[in-house]
Amino acid sequence: MGFDGVGWLAAIIIGGLAGWLAQKFMNTNTGLLMNIVLGIVGAIVASLILGLLGISFGGWVGYLIAGFIGACIIIAIGRAVTR
To answer: What would the pLDDT profile of 38-64 be if each residue is shown by its tens digit?
Structure first.
């Protein structure tokens, strides 16, 4: 994915929103900075995984969807590791 059509500032804002949505969906308690990191890293992780399946997202909405999916995956992996 690599910020397809999304600038750095937009990536931070969208990543924060995706991380916040994942936080609410997965019922965790993370801060703003962690939400941003989860959203951005989650978008990269999800785009890699979905790219292997032949699915690609583009633009702001695609980045938000990929960030949400990836952040949920990262939270689930974190929970599995800590338990």
So the answer is: 888 888 888 888 888 888 777 788 888
The SS3 assignment for 64 reads: helix
CA-CA-CA-CA torsion sign (12, 17, 23, 29) = positive
d(CA 46, CA 68): 9
Asked whether the predicted pLDDT for residue 8 surpasses 70, the reply is yes
Beta carbons of 16 and 36 less than 8 angstroms apart: yes
Spatial neighbors of 65 by CB under 8 A, at least 6 apart, are 57
Report residue 59 as tokens. 């633009």
The answer, yes or no, to whether residue 18 has pLDDT greater than 50, is yes
Spatial neighbors of 48 by CB under 8 A, at least 6 apart, are 1
